[in-house]
Amino acid sequence: MQLIEIQNISKWYGEFQVLTECSTSVAKGEVVVVCGPSGSGKSTLIKCVNALEPFQTGNITVNGISLSDKKTNLPKLRSRVGMVFQNFELFPHMTIIENMTIAQEKVLGRSKEDALTKGHALLKRVGLVEQTNKFPGQLSGGQQQRVAIARALAMDPMCMLFDEPTSALDPEMVNEVLDVMVALAEEGMTMMCVTHEMGFARKVANRVVFMDRGRIVEDAHKDEFFGSPRSERAQEFLSKILSH
Amino acid sequence: MYEFDWSSIPGAIPLLLKGMLITLEISAVAIVVGIAWGTVLAVARISGVGILSKLAALYVNLFRSVPLIMVILWFYLITPELIRAIFGAGIGDIRLASALVAFALFEAAYYSEIIRAGIQSVPRGQMSAGLALGFTPGQTMRRIILPQAFRNMVPLLLTQAIILFQDTSLVYVIGLSDFFGTAYKVGDRDGRLVELLLFAGLVYFVICFTASRIVKRLQARYAID
What distance in Å separates residue B35's CA from the closest CA in chain A? Predict the structure, then answer.
């Protein structure tokens, strides 16, 4: 079954069309990497999946629930779709553990004890249990992003969206975040990742979606994409990104 | 040369204290209601809901474009008429009540601009992060955005409170005996206006200068994190 189904999405900012008839899907347990040059609309597309960005035509369903349906309870749906942002977006006025527990308690209605237990377990899993009572500003970028992943996991998401999770990181911190993501993929988490990390894509992706100027130009199995990309734009992109 | 005579001040201290209480009461009510109402206005203004944001903008622009002293007079003159029209009967002394309302509504316009800037100083991604975790826009505003915005705004809010504290002296136009009004009346009564007004000025200066030093210290402390 397709967990995320994107059907013919188009989106405009005023006159300017940022997405043109994009369609793709992510099956349960699948890892799909979305890549493409900057400005190609990949971040916009992934933000449409949990309705952080509205779109004008087309439809997206997540676990069978349609985002275009006016009756859909968007906050409830979002609470089950984990999202990790380029700039981490931890809440700077809360400690690490408060970041982990606030939505568990206030959105899911878990008891404080349950939320704390879950929060500690996940911090341990991303190797940051010593940082429990610090504030986000006291952590490195890589550590903050690992907390952000753990915060999303604390909601028991049915899938995870990653919007360039390593782009804002210093190079030496990229791997600690990718390691967490690889482990997550290997456990069978359904993931849609906007990223330039082709090593990550080769390692864990099932499919690669390549975007250019608001269109999905290529949507292929990773071996096919890396081995023999069909479109010229994708060939060009790959040669640029892999030549160093 | 003018001979200073400070002798009427000690005897007037109880009266002056009573006046100071009124000054503080107006300031406190205007600060608390002004910040609360100002927050509502600021949120309405950036809500993106057309009619709400237009109404809030109209309110803020209106109050910011008229002198405070006129607002005080309006509420003093119009409120009794309104009450008479609605309840069919006049009421007693409304000077304090009308001053409280006038200050609260007027200051809310200024506070809302400070609060709006504070909200806009919080990165947009914070709203996305709150929504992505399943909070509603309102919950995200209340739990995530506003707490950060208020931290950024503390010095500005306090500075506005100091200005407001000084502006309360304008209630003399409706004959209210706040600290300034009392000093004026005592000075007038004893023929010692210059001394009383110098004394009142000194008191305002000490209070406001001390408060602004505290704001400076707070500013330095908040700047660290």
Answer: 21
